[in-house]
Amino acid sequence: MRYALPADSLQRLFRTLKSGGRRLVGPTERDGAIVLDEIDGVDELVVGRTDRQSAARYRLESTGTSLHFDFNVGPQSAKRWLHPPSLRLFRARSAGASFTVERPPPPAPIALVGARSCDLAAIAIQDRVFLGQHTDPHYASRRSDLLVVAVQCGRASATCFCPSMGAGPRVTTGFDLCLTELDAPHRFVVEVGSPAGQAIADQLALDPAGADARAPEAAAARAEAAIDKRLDTDGLRVRLLAALDSPAWSEVADRCLGCANCTMVCPTCFCTTVDDITTLDGAHDRVRRWDSCLTPESSHLHGHGPVRAELKDRYRQWLTHKLATWHDQFDSSGCVGCGRCVTWCPAGIDIVAEAQTIAPATVPEVS
């Protein structure tokens, strides 16, 4: 069943999402970008803004409309809320001859508004990482309480290649509710993806979508037609692993800054390290934070130094893991084609171009 949601009822939806103490996380404008942050309601959403993205370039522009979701993915994804950049695991305090251990309270559940198809695919990949053979309790707690209101893409940026990765642009799974935004008049089509989503739709007493019922397919078709970037994934794992000695790794390393921006914005990268910190009052904090295979410290061995001392080796590790050996660990690629790593790389390195240069597809000879 698909429902109609007038634009002036969006705040009512948000109030329903926040019931029971949920925090509302949605797209808002900050520091020249559209980011995911905790918001109170519709007034903090983006209005009439879109983004223009290409390699190493991100700019916001006005559209002259009242639309809230007429843009592509920003630098953040659901990863920030399910797998936080920094997480205090515990605090230990001395207590005479013994000590006490304090653990942080569980976070309030989240209603995430604005996730795109590539973001949902990334959540599914991180589910395999954190809820697979070894369950991460911190991720599991946040994930079990997550309510997802996805948004159907109606446009695409120059860095998008989600069709190549089977991750979009059409939202098909992994959501509770999905909104397709329409203009003139401003309104939404609501799709239901779970019993929790159906309960919210019932609570709002929404009317059927009527003539707008096919709007999600039309919007996704527009977005896909605008996507020019393609990655040939047929045999890509084999091709990459056969090219480990390619001189192209050194060529890309000459451009790479080793800044780790690509892994920070990637919605699936999951590497972490642990810091032990003694505070001035004598307490001891153990903090888990994001790490990156692009940094030499990530492969540092005590008494030896980094295993991957050269930048070309670290970049090779990142790209081959993402597009090749991730299949061996998690039965999928580690890339969803969101294009964030291309947009936010200050050197403008394009993962699609590099993969195709390093491991080109075989072109059959013309007889």
Strand order of the largest sheet: 3-2-8-9-10-11-1-12
Strand content: 15-25%
Helix content: 25-40%
Low-confidence spans: 363-367
Task: Give a quick precis of the structure.
This protein is α+β, with helices and mostly antiparallel strands and 367 residues long. The chain folds into two domains: 2-225, no CATH class; 236-358, no CATH class. Helix content is 29%, strand content 25%.
Please explain how this structure is put together.
By secondary structure, the chain is of the alpha+beta class. It folds into two domains: 2-225, no CATH class; 236-358, no CATH class. It is built from twelve helices and 16 strands. It has helices spanning 10-18, 79-82, 117-130, 137-144, 195-204, 215-225, 236-241, 248-253, 261-265, 311-330, 340-343, 351-358; strands at residues 2-6, 23-30, 33-39, 49-54, 57-62, 86-95, 98-102, 110-115, 147-151, 177-182, 187-192, 207-208, 272-278, 284-290, 300-301, 305-306. The strands form four sheets. The chain has an eight-stranded mixed beta sheet, sandwiched between helices. A four-stranded antiparallel beta sheet has the order 7-6-14-13, with no helix packed on it. The chain has a two-stranded antiparallel ribbon with strand order 4-5. A hairpin with a 2-residue loop joins β2 (23-30) and β3. The protein is globular.
